[in-house]
Amino acid sequence: MMRPLLLPASLSLLLLAGCAVGPDYQRPVVELPDAYRETPSKIAGETRSFAERDWRSVFTDPQLQQLIEEALKAGPDALLGAARVREAEALAGVARAPLFPQAQASLSTSATERAPGDRFTSTFLGGVGISWEVDLWGRYRRASEAGRADLLASKEARHGLNTSLIGSVADYYYQLAALRRTLAVTQRSADNQRHVLRLVQQQIRAGISSAAEEHQQKSALGATEARIPVLRQQIAETENALSVLLGRAPGTMTFAAPADLEIPDLVPPGLPSALLERRPDIRQAEAGLIAANARVGEARALFFPNLSLTALFGGVSTSLSDVLNGKAPGVASVGPNLLQPLFAGGRIYFNQEAALARLEQAVVIYRKTILGALGEVANALTAFDTTAEVMEIQARRVVSSREAMRLAEMRFQAGTTSFLEVLDAQRQLLSAETDEAQSLLDRRKALIRLYLALGGGWQEDAKRP
């Protein structure tokens, strides 16, 4: 009959009050400014951030919303991010497993002593073994903590990937809009140049213009027409890139140009301190810091004694069939094992030093990520303001160029100016309308950039440990 295992009172108390060695995590102190560098004075005191808005309220075009949802559900990048999270969940379970008792079935054999002349025999031992390494110093608790932090980092990486995916889909979508607008402008310019060419040809027949002017206009028309297939190629390439993001085969679909985007005049960035909770890359860096901190405690616990409890219940016999059928005489073994490391060639010491170095690296990465985020927001705010100014300038330029073109044609028909003035007006108008389309694209990209820089584009789906 097996007797109950009795442990010394001091050891029992130690088991009940087992501590976890190593430092408990504390977020590093980071000095943050009170406001961003380029924050407009009208919204300098606004604490709410534009990033708090759901991406559907920022990208309001119905087709764009549908494409983003498709990319988040079936896009290769989204599927890859989800698979990585599942891997991290499994690894977190692996890290937690040593906290629980382990059970396994065993079967072993050994030679039996025999007298001279006796036949060779073997003894078989089979049964169920149970072992449990008591986590006196929190080694496995720290490992489990690190595993949970790695899982959190994986989730934050997925958040970051999804926000990047949202921005990429919107970026390609607006590129298509700009390219199609530029194509329309170019085709309209070519039509206008053909009209002028016909006018020149009429004047040649009337003896007013020369063949040189006709060839000049044909050359200008050819230069404009040559841009059209290039723009169509760029449209096809952009559609193909968007298809890949959605997980579709390139060339199987086309996308209509989106409606005009409603761009707000002022976008409150909120407080810089909010980036610590809003930006997925900062949250991922902090999760890596938590994991590195926990692994310092895991490494430090290796210096202390290792206590494990083992038990074996089974049977022993010289007959294998008796052991397998449960007819062999019973045997039980229960007891603690205590192991104190004495010398390991410096492995334990250097393992701890490596863990401390990785913790130092994680702190630097965390601080660097915050500084990078602050820089991205400052640059995005500047770009958002600058693109608004450029759009206004380009709009005035287009109006002036159209009027200059109208007057140049009138003056040429009246014979008061040379044809070179008409050619120059044509080039100026095409350039102005093309630059206006680009300025609108830059404005839309600036909005995307600012929204993502502030940490927008994802929703909280799990509590932090």
Automatic annotation (TrEMBL):
InterPro entries to which the protein is assigned, alphabetical: MdtP/NodT-like, OMP_efflux
Subcellular location: Cell membrane
Recorded GO MF terms: efflux transmembrane transporter activity
Position of the signal peptide: 1-22
Family affiliation: Belongs to the outer membrane factor (OMF) (TC 1.B.17) family.
Name by which UniProt lists this protein: Outer membrane protein, multidrug efflux system
TM spans (from-to): none
Naturally occurring in which organism (per UniProt): Formivibrio citricus
